[in-house]
Structures are given as C-alpha cells and as structure tokens.
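Quick question: what would this complex look like in 3D?
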Amino acid sequence: MRLYEYEAKQLFSQFNIPITSGQVAETKEQAKAFAEKTKKPVVLKAQILSGGRGKAGGVKFADTPLEAGTRAEELLTTSIKGFPVNKILMDEKLDIEKELYLGITLDRVNYKIVVLACSEGGVEIEEVARRNPHLIKKISLDVDQRFFPFWGMSLARHLGAKGENLKKLSQIVVSLFNLFKQYDAKLVEINPLFLTKDGRYIAGDARMSLDDDALFRHPELAEMGIEIRHEEGEMTEREKLARGWEIPYLDLDGDIGMFPGGAGFGIMGNDFIHYFGGKPANFMDSGGGPSPERLARMLILLDENPKVKAIFGARFGGISRCDDFAKGVVIFLKEHGLTKPMVLRMTGNMWQEGVRIFQESKKEHPEIFKNIEIHGIETPIEEIAQRAVELAKQR
Amino acid sequence: MRLYEYEAKQLFSQFNIPITSGQVAETKEQAKAFAEKTKKPVVLKAQILSGGRGKAGGVKFADTPLEAGTRAEELLTTSIKGFPVNKILMDEKLDIEKELYLGITLDRVNYKIVVLACSEGGVEIEEVARRNPHLIKKISLDVDQRFFPFWGMSLARHLGAKGENLKKLSQIVVSLFNLFKQYDAKLVEINPLFLTKDGRYIAGDARMSLDDDALFRHPELAEMGIEIRHEEGEMTEREKLARGWEIPYLDLDGDIGMFPGGAGFGIMGNDFIHYFGGKPANFMDSGGGPSPERLARMLILLDENPKVKAIFGARFGGISRCDDFAKGVVIFLKEHGLTKPMVLRMTGNMWQEGVRIFQESKKEHPEIFKNIEIHGIETPIEEIAQRAVELAKQR
Amino acid sequence: MAILVDKSSKVIVQGITGGAGKFHTERMLAYGTKIVAGTSPGKGGEKVLDIPVYDTVEECVANHDADTSVVFLPARFVMEAVIEAIYAGIKFVVVIPEHIPISDMMTVRKEAQKFGTIVLGGNTAGIITPGEANLGIMPDIAFKPGRVGTVSRSGSLTYYVADTLSRTGYGETTCVGLGGDPVLGSTFNDILALFEKDEKTKAVVMVGEIGGVYEEMAKTTIEKMSKPVIGMIGGIFAPPGKRMGHAGAIVEGEMGTAQSKLKALEEAGAHIAKTFLDIPKILEKFNI
Amino acid sequence: MAILVDKSSKVIVQGITGGAGKFHTERMLAYGTKIVAGTSPGKGGEKVLDIPVYDTVEECVANHDADTSVVFLPARFVMEAVIEAIYAGIKFVVVIPEHIPISDMMTVRKEAQKFGTIVLGGNTAGIITPGEANLGIMPDIAFKPGRVGTVSRSGSLTYYVADTLSRTGYGETTCVGLGGDPVLGSTFNDILALFEKDEKTKAVVMVGEIGGVYEEMAKTTIEKMSKPVIGMIGGIFAPPGKRMGHAGAIVEGEMGTAQSKLKALEEAGAHIAKTFLDIPKILEKFNI
C-alpha cells in the first residue's frame, strides 16, 4: 500500500532524511496562514495516492498569502487523476540548484533489493532509464545483506557530491535504506531530491509503498493514522464496508456481481465475462476457508449494489469447503433474501454435503430459491459465465 | 571484560530472562533486612570477578535473618580467590528440581558463535564436556546468521523441556542470544539455570564477558556503572592511575620495571627477564605511537614504584618513533628525575633523531643521565635484559 | 512417474493440531497420502488422527525419515517453520498459508537455495499426483491420473484446468500450485523444467495471471522444451494498479501486464487458451 | 620472489590524510613502495605527498589499477574500510589499527573469504619484503633481503627477529605481522602455506604468544612443510587471565597457554627458540 507524501515525510524525518518544515492544509485559511508565517513564496502539493501529480496539475506555486489561499482552494475543490484532493502539503519554495533521484525497490526477477541513484531527477525515472541509462547507477543486494556506507558514498559520487556534501548525501542513502528495511517497504523514492543553491539536500517529494502483509509488524503506523489502503486511490464506501468485514473487494464499473471462490478464478472469471460480452461490477475474494457468515456478507455486498443486475457464483471447494459455502448461501437467502438473479456452480471438497444442504433447505423453503440456478461439476464453468451474462441482459 | 553477577542479571532482566528478585548488600544490616523482608531461607553470593566461587566458599545459605547477617559479615570480611568481597547478592533460596546449563561463546577456531545447552548444570561445563560429552548439545552459527527460534526449541528439548515449558525455555535461549549480540559479548552463561519444583526456569547465576573493543558502541553500560576492567579481579591503585592516563599497565610481583615498546615484546621480555634469573614488577604497553608526555608518565609509574629496583627499557621504533621516545625520556629525566638505574636499547624508525636528542640533552644536563645506560642496534636485546637483572641484583 | 511427490513421499504436516491442519490431514490421508508425522511446538507426544505429533521437525526426520512437509500455520510463523524444515533436511516444502511478508519469503528462498530444498508457495493450494498423493487443499474430485502436467499460480484455476483435463480423458501426471503470493518458493521455470524431464508427462498446461514477472521469466525455459506447452493468462480485462486478492496480482510496470505475459508465451512457442474449453481443443492437435 | 607483496604491488593508503597515514606513507614511499593513491572520504581531489587522494577505493582501482591496501583509520571505521576495499576488487589488505571489535573482524573475514581477498591484521605492524616494499609501520633498519621468512603476531617481535636474522647474514624474504587482535584476517596457517610455496624462502621463523588458538591450529600445516620451521612462544611466565595489552593474549581455556602452544609446535616438528639469539644457532644446522 502506498503512503501519502506527508505520511512518508513523517517517516523520513524519523530517519533524519532532510525535508522542509512543511505543513498539511485542509482549508484555504490554513494555506494562507502557512504562507503568512513563512514570509516566502510557497509550493502547494495535492496529497493523492498516485504518481504523475505534477503533470496532472496537482502542484502549484504562490508568491503571496492571498495567492496561496486561492491556489489551495483550487486544489481542494478539484480531482487529480480521478482522486478528490482532501489535503495539500504546503512547503516553502526553495532555490534549486539541481534535481536528483534516489530510490530503493525490490527486484522480483533476481530476488534482490535494488538501490538506485539518478543524476536527473524530477522526471519519470522509467523515462530516463530509456533515454539515458548511464545516468542511473544501481546497487543490488541480497535480502539479508547489510548496507555498507561505502555504497552510499559511491551513489553520492554518482550524483556529483563532493567534500562535506559527499558525506551528507551518503548518509541520506544509508538512512533511506534503513527506512526501507525498518518498515518492510516495497518501494521508497525521493524524486526529486533537491540540491539547493545554498548546498543543502532536501527531499522534494517522498513516495513509499509498504508490504501490506508485513503491516502486522508495524503497529506504530496505525497510531500515526497510516491504515491499510489500495496501492492507488482511496476506497469507495462499499470497499470500506467490505474491508470492515475483512473481505477483499473492489468495485468495477459493470453490472454482473462476481461471487467467485479464489482470487485466481476471480481474475480469470472477470475475463470470461468480458469474452461473453458482459461486464463485472466487482472483484471479490473469499479468503482462505471463509465462514458461512462471511459468505453471506459477500452476497449482501452484491445484492445491495444497485448496479448489479445478475450474480455469477462459482465455488470449487479447496481450502474453502462446499458445506460451509452452501450454509453461507442459505443463511443469506433466509436472512436477507436474494433480489437479483444468480447462477451458481459448486463442486470440490465436501460437495456432496453442500448439495445435501441445498436440497434440505429447498425442501423447507422453496420460495427463497426462486432466483437461483444451481449447477454441479457436470456443467462447464464457461456455460455458467455465459448464463450470467444472459441473465444480466434480460434485466 | 567480565561483569559482576548482579550487573549481568540487570541485563538479563532487560531481555526478559527470568531472575529472582534478589538484592545487592554491602553491609550485614542490609543482608539481615533482605532476609526479614523475604521471610524465607536465603542464599548469599560473594560478588567477585572470578569463576569457581562456590567451591571457594563464596556462596552461603541462611535460614534466619540473624544467620543471614552473620553469613554476610563473614563474606564481606574475607577474600575469595584473592579478591576482597565488597558486595554480596542476596536471593531467596529456591526449591530446585534440576540444574541446567546454557551458554553462548565465540569459537575462535572456526570463527563461529556457539550456543551450548547441557542437561547437567551447576558444575563446571569443561568437566562435563570431558566426562559426558553427550549431555552437551551445540549449535554453531556464522557471525551474520540470524538465530532461528527452532534452534532454541531444539536446545530446550535437549534440556528435557515439554509443553508450555518448551516454549518458555526456547524463548530464554532466543533472548540470551539477542543479549549476546546486543552487547558484543564474548561469553554469556547461565550456570546453573534452575528448573524449580513449581516448574519455572530461573537464572541461578549469570556470567557475561564483553568485547572491550566494542564498548564504544554501548555508552549505556557506563551509565549503569559498568566500566572497563580486567577479565579477572579489580585494579590496583597504580593500575587505576595508569588507566587514567590510558596506559595499559599491570602490576606483577617482581622488582624490575619493564619499559618495553610494543605488547609483543612486553610479553616476551617478561620471559627473558625470568630466563636470566630476574622478576618483572609490571607489564606495560605504550600503545600505538605514544606521545613524549605519555612516555614520561610511563616512566613515572615505574620510578615511583617502591618495589622497582632497576628499569629495563627497549624501544624498536615502529608506529612509535624514536624521536618521540627520546623526547619522552628527556622530559621525564628533567621534570621528574630518575632515581632507579635504567638500561635502555633504542633503534628503529627515526633512531638517528632519537640519538641526536639524547646527545644534545646530555651535553646540556649531563647530571640527569647519571643512572641511565643507553644502547643501540649493535647490542642484542638479550644482553640488555641480562644487564637489567644485574642492576636489580646490585640494589 | 510424476514430479516432486508420489506415493513413496514421507510427508509431515507442520501445524497438524490446528483446525485447517487437522481437516486437510484427514483429507490427504483419505486420498492415500503417506503422512508419517506432524509438528506442533509444545504438543509433542500427542496424536492427531493416529499420526504422532512432535515439537520439532528434526524429530520427524529422525524417527520417520520424513522428506516432505506441508505447512498449515499463520503467515507470521511460516518463515520460521519452513527454515526449520530446511535445516532439518526436508527436501520439499509446500506452503499453504497466504500473505507471507515479502522479506520473509526472500529469506526462505535464500536458505532453501543453500540446502537445495524445493519450496512451493506461499498461498498455494498445494500439489497433487492423482492416484498417489495429495498435498495441500486441492479437492480430489477434479483430478484423474493421466498424461498432462499443470502448473498455475492459483488454486481455483488449477481445479478448473484439471477438471477439464479429467473430463476430456487426458488426466494429469502432477498438478502444481505455485501460489499467489508476490515472492514464491518455486516459479514456472522450475516446474516446467521438471515436467520436461518427466517421462509420463506428454504436455503441460501453465496458467499465469497479471502481476509479477514469473510468466515472462518462463520464456527461455518454454523455448527449450520438447513438449507442447499450453498457456493461459488471467487478467486481460483487469483494471491496472489495484490489488486483486492475490498480492502478486498488482500490475507493476510493463513486465506485469497480461499483454506482456501473453506476448512472452506466444514468442516462446506456447499455445494460448482463452477459456478452459480451449485446452482439449489444442491438445487434440498433438498425438498424446 | 617473495610472498604477498613486492615491488610490483600497486598500493593505496586508506586514511592517507590522517597523521599516522601521512607519516607512514612518506616512510613507505622512501623505501620504494609503489603507492599509487590514497583515500579519505570528502577529500577526493586533494594530494598528499604528491599522491592523489580519492573519496572511494573504487576510484583508486579504476584509475590506478590498485591491488593492495594499507589501512590507517580509527578502529571503528576499519570494518567499513576493509569491506569497501574487498568489494572494490583489492586483493590484499593490511589493517594497521588495533582494538577492532571482534564481531566487526568476523564480518570482515566472511566477506574476504567470499571474494578470495587476503587480509592481514588488525593490529599488525604490516608486512615487508626487504628491498622491495614496506607496507605498514615497520622500521627499515631491522630488515635486509635474504632467505628466511618470518611470521609473528607482534610488531616488536618481528623487528627483533628480523634484526637478529639481518645481523647474522641470513636476511629475510618477507616478514609478516599477523596482528595482535583476537580475531585476525590471516593466521599462521595461511602464511606458512605461502612460505612453503615460495622458492626463495629456505626456512621460516614463527613467533607466537599466549592467548588465542592460532599457534595450535598451525600444527597440521607445519607437519606437512618441507622447510624448517623455528618456533618461539612469548608468555611462558605471563600471569594467567589478565589482559597483556594484546586483546588476544588472554589465556582462555587450555588451548591458549604457552605450554599448549609449545607442545603443538614441538609435536609438529618445529625447532623451538627461547631467545632471538637461539634462532641463528638453529639455522646453522640447516644448509640454507
């Protein structure tokens, strides 16, 4: 998950990576006040969970407090790359000598940690990599390798540092590496890293993406208000509801409610629906071995979504068992009721038990099964997907 | 350097290694008070920087507060293995089911860290290694290898732990390893490690030796009152004076003041004096590249020692330069004056300059050179040592 | 013949006393898998389904000559457990749990490499050699002994592919789940190479998905293979940059897209299936 | 011929701008040692004694093809500096500073081993091949080109031994100071093996001292040597368990005593000298 610039900068300052003494503003007035206090031209940066903010108009400058208020208002009432701007980070505008790049990421081809320095910063690093690869210097490390400061020195030299600045910049590289390791990051970037006219290095921007699966090791982040979120953008209300229930859920813009078992078929089933001319309304994963209650809640998310016209259900019981699955569906049918047509295929571990549960329940309450078609292993999953598309088109 | 038991136990408790809530006593009254508060039989342990304390009578038991006072007085007015006892550690006497051994040390043959568990504790581990080597289980690790808890489990199993106790004991192993690494220890031992009748593990004793050369990384130890010291025993007054001047110095029980350059020849010169029938009064090392002032102070330590009858000086200038050496000797001769006969051999880096300094100074102040014989590379060092023995015998 | 696991594998279950561990141990046993022991620290001496439970893996190896392990433990204990198995001499470890921290799994890979241990997962449904042994959580119903090998990052896709192969009479030699986590113990490369060497396997179905670089990396192996490889990629219509349940399925850079994966497979000479039903249609062209 | 260093060695000084670094660089240059560059982070571009100073070792290797380094830096910076040299491709590093933390030096050993780099020290007086190159702090006056190799843990003992060999006409091929710290980059074993292979070396004098296990470990190497080895051990009369300046000289257990060292040498067939004057007396017996 990605951090906001102002969050990443909080962590930067814990590790003594120099940042300007900026401030977050949520209103025009706060922006004005900051500019008045600073008594210098300021820069206003929209806080969104996406890159390419500068190009998209998310960074603005102001010479006077009045102008700062105006610019802040513009940013706070707009969307950048589709994301509404709720916070802006205000900084004093610096006299820049040079813009550099520093980054650390995981190399998943070679299973290494890669530290990158580029003497051309403030632009997209992929762009530079294509155009001027010699400007980039890389150091690759094993996962358990400690970072020796002389690598920092070598990268700092590549960035043109000399004398006292060489030591300062190599210390920044070392600190950035320590930060990366400390928080189980997948990516840390300073782009641009400013060298000011008066010879200071200052992180102009701060990007961090953390390994969600290692967040349990960092309870202090939650205390700082840094909670789990998407890699890009904030969650919709339904996504937040799903997260509260610990269901991996993602809103898409189609009309077929997807109720697949397993993330793999979740992704593939999405393609199948497209192949047959439909569009899914969501992505959803049940997680390993979901309880009947959780399965019922998953169906609530779909049935209550006004955009959903039909539901495509697929369960190949592995770690998740068909008996639990059938129980969950029945709980949902009884307690909530199914208002959308649903087609379902169920097989795998404990399928006989699942079929028995459905049969018994249907005997008792045939009315709650009126919108549902249930299939077994005899019907290929492609036919089920096709049927879901048909059902959606009929509405 | 070695820590006192009570100091090591302070560090143990920081790492959640279970200890009894003992207390240090420096007087009979404190000992009595502790026994009164405890309302149980107590154990009193002399705090000295040496092993084999139990055999030497340094551990006593008392059933009543009165007896505790008597035992404390006995300990506090005696010497154990030659070391006066200034502090005793008081502990509640436990009901012991079993005594075990846990230790971590450096294997300097294979350059590994070795973790040892022995199911027979409370005795000398070397003894067990000879008699019943199968009772000892060893795990050897590379210096940068992290300690995986399953090794703790494996050692705990070797010590007979089961169920919840297995987890508790493996956690103690892990904690001991962390402690070892945290403080750059050369040795950490819990011997005995008690298993009490009520199923608790408690460190009965605590031994730690730290790497003196890594102490600079642990300023917090000085704050706890843990200062540099010998591996065994406390320092004499003259040794403390020398330490204040940052001169490695050790009192021995002979009568020849040793003023050798370099620790290597310091040790070998000690042997030479013995070969020729003499006995050195000290060991001394000048450290790398000593200043003239430090050299003068080294001579003060020797000349002011009433036991010293003659001084044996040897300087083969390497990182220490003969010009500085000669300057130091001259400062001493001028400002302090030499009261003991001294024989000296000087050669090596800058020897010509050293000879010149001696000659000029002697021309000016011939009287201060009356007790000193100066030789150069032409005289073998063995002859100089022999001469020093002669000079001492003449007094 | 088969790869990695067969009826002679001596299997232990790490975490055998937990709910999932016990449930799937029962299933695996019922399938005929030779499970010789289980571990659960602090519970050594107990029995689960008549299988002896030990505190440590080293005891399982010493007492039962165990060579294979299936791990059913919470994610935060997985690194420790797998490395314990590696150091104890286990040669093949199947990691069922999901959401293992990336740095933990990178450490596991390093230790595994040192000792030549093969690790599958994390977040794998396991591995099955139909009729011989079933390690993990895969439902028996989908699988039949036969002549096609399958390898996939997803459990559910493995089931659908095997179901298709079983119902069309091809059957499977071994079905391997690589796992859905971002850093995996084994990759398509490793498994494809094993299938190439396995005499009974006549063709391989590999199912990839968006995110990560494992499919692209498989290109050089596929190029060298003598057996037909059928490739399938999930996520052609997935929105970019959003987490799709599998942590690995985040589209990061050009390497991770469905397009780049399809391109790599096509260039390597793999035959692309869009839906499962395409698989038997492609196999028909080969005389297997 | 000689071992480890000769007139073709391209030497750098790490810490060349410090007091000791500069002083001994001047001495080493005066001896004819080929010093091609020095390092001092933040001072790149300066010159010391006309020798170019760089920020990093990698520049010294790139610009001057350096292959050897002498380190003159405070103990706490030594690990970093040596490992920098190792990674930059330097093949032989001489560590003059003393009191290097044990764990730092164990880390250095590991990295050196990975890259096949030879490290001498810490707390060594250095190494000299008389008439060719002098690396470290050894005084020229003691040494003359000749036919005996010496290896010792102590600087001062190296000087006395060489002085004795020089004055009795044997002279030295190379004199090696292992260093006095408790964990060393190279040991008697390593250096004795090099002397055995060196054609010009006809005999070796090794001087050990109490503490550590290096002398005992040398036993197996000495046994296999074809050249006479003369052994000397310091500390026969040293009090046990007290720090004698050299951190290594703490008597720890049975292995570290002077007696155990003398015994190991005698059993290996080395000829024991008590004082320096015994050395030429022993050498006389061999036709070298």
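Answer marked as accepted. Chain C touches chain A through 69 residues (CB under 8 Å).
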